[in-house]
Fold:
Amino acid sequence: MLAQVFDNLFDIEFMVKVERRLQNLPVTASNIANGTAYPSGESGSHCLMGENIFERTSLNTVVNLMDDSEIFFEMFDRIEEYLDEKYFLDRIDFNLQHSFCDGTSHVDGDEDGGEITIMYLPNVKWEKEWGGQFQILDKEQNVIEEHEYVPGRVFVFPGEIPHRGLGPRHPYVYRYSIVWRVRRLEDML
Ligand SMILES: [Fe+2]
Structure:
């Protein structure tokens, strides 16, 4: 599999806290996953509702930090600990997809750029018939890997792999995802 999949990293109480936090955050319609000037490009083919939580453009230049965003850093610390890895964090975003708002195939990072995407599925309740699968595609846009939306699931995959998330098939279900874009610290030294 191209994506590593991890379940049960967080207990239900913490998952509920994360979901509530997201549900109370305002979203914009300009969350572009593959901006042409990665990591801060403003044009790309893939636009979902959502918002940037954290972004830095160099080691010491933080250009955005959302208020009261500690929980997303706490999650990141726990994921790092679980994976036994140390990462340089470029940005944190969350995405929100309403019914039938399928993501388009896109990449999160440059080829051989060493970018890694860590993605968490925050919806605490999810039924299989609601869809919302995460898909990995080849360069000809064929789906080569598909994963169900499982509450609390964490994916880790190379940013250069084409992927997308499908919107829910229920009119009043909203599909959230949280994404940390990172690079291995040891690769940067
Ligand atoms: Fe993405």
Q: What stands out?
A: The CA atoms of residues 53 and 66 lie 5 Å apart.
